[in-house]
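User: Continuing from earlier, I have the next pair ready.

Assistant: Great, send them over.

User: Here they are, in order.

Assistant: Folding the first of the pair now:
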Amino acid sequence: MSFLSKLRTRTGPGRSGRKGPPPCDCALPEPRKKIRTVVTRRGAAWRGVLLPLVAIALWSAVSALHLVKSGLLVSPLAVLQTGWQQTVSGALLRALSASLAREASGFVIGTVGGLLLGSLLGFSRLARRMVGPSFDTFKQISLFAWIPLISVWFGLGDAAKVVFLSLAALLPVTAHTCDGIHAVPRSYVEVARAFRYSRLQLIAHVILPAALPSIFTGIYLALIYSWLATLGAEYLLVSGSGIGNLLIDGSEQFRMDLVLFGIIVVGLTGWALNALARAIERAIFARRPLRAS
C-alpha cells in the first residue's frame, strides 16, 4: 500500500452503512468531448502562430515601402538568405553548439549544486540558521555584478562563462527546493510517523514527492535563466564563439540581416528549451497518479 493510500485510509471520511462493493466511479469515455478538446488545442496552436505571421507581414510591408532606412531594417528575404548562408557554411552550427554546450554545462553544475544546497537548507535547521541569511543576501546581488570578479579569477574563456551560468542556475533551484521542502503539509509527516516511517522513508516517500512540483519549477527556471545568461556571458566575456558573438559581429559590421537572424535563432532556441522542459514535466507528473494508486 502506498503512502497516499494510507493517508486516505487514515484521514478519509468514516464508512457508511452501505453494504456490498463500493460503487464504481469510472465513467465511459465521451468521444465528443475528446474531439472538442483536440480541436480546441489545435485552434490554440494556430492562434499562437497568428501573432508571428502578422509581425512578419508588417515587417515585409515596412521594408517594401521603404518607411525605414534600408541600413536599419532589412527585408525578411535578406534575413532568410543570410540564415541560409550561415547554415550552409556551418557557422550557425558552430556558434549554436558552443552556446548550448556552455548552457548545458552551467545548467547541470548549477542544478546539482542547487539541489544539494536547497536540500541542506530544507532539512537541516542548523544549516538554515547558519547559511540561510548568507544565501538570502547572496541572491539579492545582481547576477551581472559578479562578472568583474569572475573575469579576474577565471579569465575570459569558457571556464568563466560556465561559472557565470552555474550561478544563474544555482539560485532558483536552491530557493525552490528549500521552499518546496518547507511547504510539505504537516499532516503528511504526522501520518508517516504514525505508520512508523524511518527518516529515510519519510524523506524518500513523503517529503520529496510532495516537494517535487516546486523543485521542478526551480529546475525549469534554471534552464531558462542559464540560457539567458549564456547570451549575457558571451556579450560581456567576448572570448570564444557563440550566438552572442554572432550578434556582436553583426552589430560591429552593421549587418542588420545577421543581427536579426541571430535574434530569431535565440528566440527559437529558447522556445525549444521551454517546450522540452514542459514535455518532461508532463511526462513526470502524468505517471505520479498511477504510482500513487
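And the other member of the pair:
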Amino acid sequence: MFYWVVKAILSPLLHVIFRPWVEGLDNVPKQGPVILAGNHLSFADHFFGALFLRRKVISLGKSDYFTGRGLKGMLSRAFFSGVGTVPIDRSGGKASEAALRTGKRILAEGQVLAIYPEGTRSHDGRLYKGKTGVARLALESRVQVVPWAMVNTFEMMPPGSLVPKLGIRPGVKFGKPLDFSRYYGMEEDRLVLRAVTDEIMYALMELSGQEYVDKYAASAKVEATRAAMEAKQTAKDTRGPRGRG
C-alpha cells in the first residue's frame, strides 16, 4: 500500500517537472513473473524506472539502506520501502545465495523483479559487465527477462549530485522480452550463465546506446578513483618546486 501512496504523490510531480518519456511499454507483461534487467546510471533511476508501469516493481537493495539511525535512517527506510526495495545482504558468499532465494520468492509470487546486473551505478555513464546472478534467477525461476534502459538520467543527476538538473528529459526504454528456455536445466553451468548475462547486457547496450566496457563496474570505479588520486598527487608534486621558489 505504501508503494502506491508514494507513487500517487510523486508521479504527477515528476511528469510535470521533468516531462519523462517512455518507449516499449507494451513489452512488459501485464501479469505473471518477469525480470526487468536494467542499466544503472543515477540515483534518479529509482524515481523514473518504474514510473510508467501499472505493476509494482520490486528491487533488491543493500540492507544498509534500512539500518540507519535517527532522522536520516528513518527517511532512508521510508524512501526505499516506498520505491519497492527489499533489503538484502550483498556481502557475497552465503549472502549472495540468500539474495537469490529472495529473488526467486518474489518471482514465485508472480511479481516484477528489477535487477541491475552491473551491481552498482556507472561512475562515467558507460555500460559495464554484468554479474551472472540475473542469469541464475532467470533460469532457475524459468521467467523471461525484459531489458530496461534508462536514458539521460546520468546527465540529469550524475554521481555526487544531490539535486537533479532541470531541462534534461529522462527516458525509459523497455526492450523485447528475452527467452532463455533453451538453457533451462543448465543453471549450474558457468559458461551458460555468462552467455545469458552477456546476451542481456548486449540487449541493454543496443537499447541504451551506451558504450560497453568489458569489466565490472565496481573494479572500474576503484581504478578511476585511484587514477584521479595519482593525477592529483602528480599535479601537486609538479607545482611544489615552483611554489617554493
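Worth noting for the second one:
Strands lie at 21-23, 34-38, 57-62, 85-88, 112-115, 127-129, 145-151, 171-174, 212-216. The chain has one domain: 2-244.
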